[in-house]
Amino acid sequence: MLLLVGVAPPKVTAIRSSQSLALLRARDQCSRALTPAQRLQLDKMQYEDAPHVRLYLHCFWARLQLWQDASGFQAERIIQSFGGERRLNVEQALPAINGCNAKTRSRESGSGSGSVSESQAVVDWCFRAFTCVMATPVGDWYKRHMSDVINGNA
């Protein structure tokens, strides 16, 4: 009779890139205030227009230093961070990201000069710019890439 007590199978850990680890860290840090259902929704890349989604997206992109409140998404840094020309069509990505920054910024709605309304306007702009990018081929690539990261394949 063979007795196996306290013997655990060896752990197989996927080798993740530093970029993938940064994405996972930002995702975890920015989702701390979310309910499990909200977190699952975001993991499925369902970005409804809701306050928790807007705050999460701003936190996520700002934490990665790929969003600046004064200028929006940092298109060139995003492309470099996500593998550059090896993984992304730069001629398509740059104008898509920069175009969404510009198009959604002009719709900024600030009513007053309080820091709360300015802060909210930036969070709203980030959400609008993100959903704009998601409607482009860059959004399709992002969904595939994030799915790979979340599932341990990147």
From TrEMBL:
Source superkingdom: Eukaryota
GO molecular-function term, one example from the UniProt record: odorant binding
CDD domains linked: PBP_GOBP
SUPFAM superfamilies: Insect pheromone/odorant-binding proteins (SSF47565)
Coiled coil feature spans: none
One Pfam assignment: PBP_GOBP
InterPro entries associated with the record: PBP/GOBP, PBP_GOBP_sf
UniProt protein name: Odorant-binding protein 8a
Organism: Drosophila gunungcola (fruit fly)
Organism phylogeny: Eukaryota, Metazoa, Ecdysozoa, Arthropoda, Hexapoda
